[in-house]
Design goal:
The structure holds two protein chains of two kinds. Chain A is of the alpha+beta class. Chain A has helices at residues 5-23, 57-60, 68-72, 109-113, 140-143, 147-153, 155-167, and strands spanning 48-52, 78-84, 90-100, 119-121, 137-138, 144-146. In chain A, a hairpin with a 5-residue loop joins strand 2 and strand 3. By secondary structure, chain B is mainly α. Chain B has one domain (15-334). Chain B has helices at 7-17, 19-29, 33-70, 86-96, 107-124, 142-150, 152-163, 167-190, 192-198, 203-209, 226-242, 254-257, 267-292, 308-329, 335-362, 371-395; strands at 213-214, 218-219. In chain B, strand 1 (213-214) and strand 2 form a beta hairpin. The chains are: A alpha+beta, B mainly alpha.
Chain lengths: 200, 409
């Protein structure tokens, strides 16, 4: 019969935890966040960013303002205006690229559909602000990040992307043609990642 | 006189022991005679208030740290070194919070309830001897007074529960009434043997009844007798329930009725309930110390040089640590288990404990060889055997172990 034995056993157990937490640091699993940080996992993601090659974010932006991401975005948080020269011809770059992170749900669909590997997921998460309108609407230059930064965030994924970009024809030469190499859906308008071919 | 130290050192220890008493006498002596008795009481009250409020602040911090460590967490460690300034931060937070009163509440009762909670608890400290000659009032019915004012807590809790006009508050208040009235009986009856043998209700007299040494060194605390040991354990269980501490914190059960009677309180009124609860815990611990653990007396003759108030607060610290430890260990009881424990288990045992104490008293003249052991066995088994039998009877037919889910797959 128990008759209080369980209570004593429980007391011993908690005492062991109490004393142990002072002698065995492995017991204390708490990461004291602002002071200590856990390394983010490879697949971590917060909100999208725009990747650019080279030094200049204005020139090197991979985005060609095809607006596929804008159309696909489920909560419709992306707003793109195509840049045109003085004669009105399109320049294949965005004049405006706005992304409202108060609306964005981090679903990564924009990344999946982008045929130019221009939009990728960032991992920055300390984005709180006192201004809930202006500061949460990120503009083109707020979103631009160098390709090296992307490689640092997601080495495996970025490595694959870089290999694909190096192997395939340069994205600047092929108009709407995807940089995804020998994908079966190449030539269709909706980009061409494997598995996207059943999309209307 | 203190044993085992040279006379000059003994005088010094004596002075240290009576430091606060002499200080008060000197202060009061400076005043005109007409004022003296009033000022003396006021100084005692201020000292009690200051000391126990500080203890409250410390206890809250230590409890949070201790519970954290029990659960392998750090506990508060942000404000000041090791989180030591956390109580001050909490105080500022409590004082600056909005004081909400529900629109449907009985405003007067809602306002008065926190005060009714704290004031009687503070009054209860008046009769407790904190050290040698350090009881604010040597009241000849001190124990009765203690329980009388202690019963006001039930009133306060029910006032809070009723006046808030909230279903959770009312449920909490009803649970509190049911629990506190049920446990008041074992609590008071567990002190009965002490009163029987000391022949007095005065807590100063009860402390004096535990004076002297058995075997020339061990203090004659009541806890060193079979009925005292059983009495202390029963008293502690009942006291835990009476002060609404885990595992008897049903009136506040956060998981089922949010915070019970505290739901509609915020800011400083909530803090007052909190203070009242902790001060009640200290008071009932202090009573347990006075009744069973020799009050301010040292456990062995060689340690009598330590000032009496130090012993008292050391024992109080032990009690507080035990309450924190229990809170970190035991899950909350179910309401019917709670009532079973009080009425079917504790009540028979405290009554038998009184019989055991009487037997202990009347077998005192025994002088044959092994009389002490025989008395221990006899008196101990009078409580111990029913403990085992009752425990078996109550657990009979109950499945204790991992829960089986019949409906869920």
């Amino acid at each position: 019969m128990n008759l209080g034995k369980g209570i004593l056993k429980g007391l011993v157990e908690t005492a062991r935890n109490f004393v142990g937490s002072y002698y065995d640091p492995a017991r204390l699993v708490t990461i004291q966040y602002p002071d200590e940080r856990r390394a983010l996992p490879e697949k971590a993601r917060s909100f999208p960013m725009l990747v650019y090659d080279g030094e200049d974010p204005e020139k090197g932006l991979r985005c060609v303002a095809c607006k596929i991401c804008e159309k696909e975005c489920p909560p419709q948080c992306i707003y793109i205006v195509l840049d045109r020269d003085e004669k009105g011809r399109p320049l294949r770059r965005p004049k405006i690229f706005d992304l409202d992170i108060s609306v964005c749900m981090s679903c990564q669909i924009c990344v999946e559909v982008c045929p130019f590997d221009a939009i990728k997921m960032n991992t920055e998460f300390e984005l709180s602000t006192a201004d809930r309108f202006g500061s949460l609407l990120l503009h083109k230059m707020d979103l631009a990040r160098p390709a090296s930064y992307y490689l640092g965030l997601h080495p495996v994924e970025a490595g694959e992307v870089n290999a694909r970009l190096a192997a395939g024809p340069g994205h600047a030469e092929t108009k709407a043609k995807p940089a995804a190499g020998p994908a079966p859906a190449a030539g269709t308008t909706s980009g061409a990642k494997p598995g996207d071919s059943d999309r209307p | 006189m203190i044993a085992g130290v040279p006379p000059s050192a003994a005088t010094m220890f004596e002075a240290l022991d009576q430091l606060f008493v002499s200080l008060k006498h000197w202060l009061v002596g400076q005043l005109p005679p007409a004022w003296q008795s009033w000022v003396s009481l006021a100084i005692s009250a201020a000292a009690i208030l200051g000391v126990f409020m500080t203890l409250f602040a410390l206890t809250v911090l230590i409890e949070r740290k201790g519970l954290g460590r029990i659960q392998n967490r750090y506990g508060p460690n942000r404000v000041g070194p090791w989180g030591l300034l956390q109580p001050i931060a909490d105080l500022i937070k409590m004082l600056t919070k909005e004081d909400l009163v529900p629109s449907g509440a009985d405003r007067v009762v809602h306002f008065v309830a926190p005060v009714v909670m704290v004031v009687p608890v503070l009054m209860a400290y008046a009769v407790i001897p904190i050290g040698r000659n350090m009881a604010a009032v040597d009241f000849n019915a001190g124990l009765l007074f203690f329980f009388a004012v202690g019963a006001c807590i039930e009133l306060a809790v029910f006032m809070a529960g009723w006046s808030s006009r909230n279903k959770y508050s009312l449920l909490g208040g009803m649970r509190a009434i049911a629990q506190m009235i049920s446990y008041e009986l074992p609590l008071i009856l567990s002190t009965l043997p002490v009163v029987m043998l000391a022949g007095s209700l005065s807590l100063v007299d009860i402390t004096d009844a535990q004076a002297g040494h058995s075997g020339g060194w061990l203090a004659r605390w009541h806890v060193f007798t079979p009925w005292g040991l059983a009495g202390l354990l029963l008293f502690t269980v009942a006291a835990t329930a009476e002060s609404n501490r885990a595992p008897f914190d049903l009136p506040e059960g956060e998981s089922e009725i949010i915070a019970g009677h505290l739901v509609e309180y915020s800011g400083i009124k909530y803090a007052l309930f909190f203070i009242g609860e902790y001060l009640g815990m200290f008071a009932v611990s202090a009573l347990g110390i006075t009744l069973f653990l020799g009050g301010w007396r040292a456990p062995v003759i060689w340690l009598e040089w330590v000032p009496s108030y130090m012993w008292f607060f050391l024992k109080l610290g032990g009690f507080v640590a035990l309450f924190i430890w229990l809170r970190g260990t035991l899950p909350r009881l179910r309401a019917d288990h709670l009532m079973n424990l009080a009425w079917k288990f504790l009540l028979p045992l405290v009554l038998l404990n009184a019989v055991s104490a009487a037997l202990w008293h009347y077998t005192a003249p025994w002088t044959f060889v092994g009389a002490g052991l025989a008395r221990w066995l006899l008196c101990g088994s009078l409580v111990g055997v029913p403990y085992v039998l009752l425990g078996r009877r109550l657990f009979a037919g109950q499945h204790i172990g991992p829960r089986t889910y019949r409906m869920a797959a």
